[in-house]
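Note to self: keep these together.
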Amino acid sequence: MMRSREIRDEAARRKAQDQFAKVKQRDAEALKDREKVQAAEAAKTAQLRALRLAKEASDREAAAKAAAEKAAVVKPAATRRKRASATPVEAASEVDSIMGQQNDRQ
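Structure:
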């Protein structure tokens, strides 16, 4: 009787070990699959980040170039202005002279 019980216990132990080994193997395969997916996502993220950084750099260069071109262009209207900050007396005398010239023409 003791022998049959030992045989039964040994069979149950082997069966449990086989099941455990199968579960462990499935878990290892699932872990490998998960790692592959994570690696693919990390590569995609790195590529998108590189593209974004390249775009930002080109945008900065374009903005700097546009600012340099804008600063290099001299506006003729701004250079023609005589005195933007005339005193009130000077401004009144200019207005009087302009009005006098118009009255003379009529």
